[in-house]
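can u do me a favor
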């Protein structure tokens, strides 16, 4: 059986499914991997329709597609139906399944788009629809480098700032954003779940090593303002805007430790609230406003 090996977020991974999104993280593997991804097309689903979520095991099913089982922070098993395509599998494998494994290992992951600026990485956080990816795309068009999109894994060393692990060099953008940002002539891949959303691979130098976190920007819609948050307001805003799949943490009994890790981040870097008009006509002005404060 063909396998692929990767080193992603400082974890060595052996996968029975090729992951083109992680192609820049491919490398040879000496010894046993820290994480195994198995593709099991033979075994039946366990209790179809019934999810299982405990501190050490997470099993969930996507009707008409596949069952995913994540256990012990070491193993992801995918049981697809015969006509399920690899891209459909990867969408959930690299999202919810990977987040479950990261949480089982006690690591920190944020729902964020990450962009490198002169002094480190800025994380743009917010709920779905807050414009994380489109903000990152606008910065990329102005010469900044994308570090990751959607799910960002962090390390919290005992000394020095938090570190952000590079993710796949691609963005997820709605069709309207692609048109407004003038990305029409580049290679696009349609999202398998949201028909009006596309994956945009970027041609940029590969990143392999983590970069220091320089700040966190919490995105929202409203009048054009950039406000420095402090204390409990900053912490609450960070937890609310940056937590990825909070129900996973709650069911695993990890929400308290997640707050503790967010507190470490909040104390280490500045947390800003950035609001701007939702209409595209105001986006360029908002981006210029942000650029003058990032450089």
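np, heres the sequence
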């Amino acid at each position: 059986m063909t396998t692929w090996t990767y080193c992603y977020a400082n974890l060595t991974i052996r996968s029975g499914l090729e992951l083109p999104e992680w192609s820049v993280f491919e490398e040879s593997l000496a010894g046993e991997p820290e994480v195994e991804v198995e593709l099991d097309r033979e075994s039946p689903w366990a209790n179809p329709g019934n999810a299982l979520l405990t501190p050490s095991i997470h099993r969930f099913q996507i009707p008409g597609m596949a069952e995913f089982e994540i256990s012990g922070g070491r193993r992801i098993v995918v049981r697809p139906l015969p006509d399920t395509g690899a891209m459909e599998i990867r969408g959930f494998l690299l999202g919810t399944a990977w987040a479950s494994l990261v949480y089982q290992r006690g690591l920190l992951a944020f729902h964020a788009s990450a962009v490198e600026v002169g002094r480190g990485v800025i994380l743009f956080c917010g709920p779905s629809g807050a414009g994380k990816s489109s903000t990152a795309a606008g910065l990329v068009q102005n010469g900044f480098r994308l570090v990751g999109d959607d799910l960002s894994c962090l390390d919290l060393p005992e000394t020095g700032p938090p570190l952000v692990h590079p993710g796949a060099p691609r963005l997820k953008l709605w069709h309207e954003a692609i048109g407004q940002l003038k990305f029409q002539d580049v290679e696009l891949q349609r999202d398998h779940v949201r028909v009006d959303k596309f994956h945009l691979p970027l041609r940029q130098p590969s990143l392999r090593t983590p970069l220091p976190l320089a700040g966190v920007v919490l995105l929202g819609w409203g009048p054009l303002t950039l406000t420095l948050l402090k204390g409990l307001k900053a912490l609450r805003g960070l937890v609310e805007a940056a937590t990825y799949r909070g129900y996973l943490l709650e069911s695993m009994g990890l929400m308290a430790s997640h707050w503790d890790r967010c507190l470490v981040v909040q104390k280490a870097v500045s947390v800003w609230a950035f609001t701007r008009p939702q209409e595209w006509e105001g986006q360029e002005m908002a981006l210029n406003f942000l650029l003058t404060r990032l450089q």
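The longest strand covers residues 211-221. hope that helps!!
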